[in-house]
Every structure is written in C-alpha cells, then in structure tokens.
Amino acid sequence: MHRTTRRTTHRLSIDAPEDLIFSMLRDSSHWPYLEGLTVYSERVSGDDSAHELRTSVVANGSLSSSHCRRVFDAAGHRAEFHQLDLEPPLLLLGGDWDIRRAEGLSVVTLNHEYEVDDSEVDGGAGELSERIGRSIDDYSRRELEALRLSCERLALLLQHHSTQNHTTAKEA
Q: What is the pTM for the complete model shown?
C-alpha cells in the first residue's frame, strides 16, 4: 500500500459577525437554501455540540452523498469534521473550520486533510491524491463563497431589522 497524505487550507474574509457565521456552519438544516452546493442535509444523531450529519452535494458536476461526524467549540468558533464510511482508495478525510476576527471582518479558514492509497492507480503514485486535491480545492472555494454571500446578506438583513426596531421603539 502506498499512502499519500495531503493538507489544504482555504481562507476567506466575511463581513459578518463570528457568531452568525458559526451558527450558519453548525445548523446545516438550512444549507440547501443557501447559494451553495448542498441539496440535502440531515442531522442523524447528536446535538449542537457534536453530531453526525448526512448530506448530498453537487461536486465535480455530479451528485454525491457523505456521512460525517462534526464536533463544535462554540466559544472558540471552531468545528472539526471527519468523514465516515469512506471507500478505498480514500482512507481518511477530515478537517476543521476556524473563524477569527481581524480588521473588522471575520476570517474563515477551512482546512482539509486526506489520505489515499494510490498504489493501484494508473498514472503512478500521487495522481489520485492530486485529483482529489483539485476537487477539494474547487469545492472549498465554492463553499466559502456561498457561506460569504449568505452570511453577509443575513448580517445586512439583521442590521436593517435591528435599526427598524430601534426606530420604532423611539417613536412609541
């Protein structure tokens, strides 16, 4: 067996509060309504601190399903995820989300780690892990952009709603 382990990091600044972004990541029930890639999402066990999740997403032009375990650190605005039920040659797939405030924005970092057995793959060692890496790269960029659009729109809506309520309270 020839194991290849790779790590990727994707980062994007979002003009929305950390708590709002973290809530969007944790509550996957609304993901199919976001401007993203998820068409189905269901929490199958657990609670808001840790749970298992089944999703169906559009990746590389086709529909795929996954089952993962997610663990959350609300105070630290972090979430770890690990895919379950992987099929060879994919041996490991997981990562984490991290949200930090910097220069008036929330910086969201999405890390992945994956391991493949590419000993039986045509094209030599590393070809399969490169192909998986390109897929993760494309999906991560699209996922972060969908998160940015959704969170920034929701932040504006909440700000507008808060301003309206504040104005109405002064008039009363």
A: 0.89
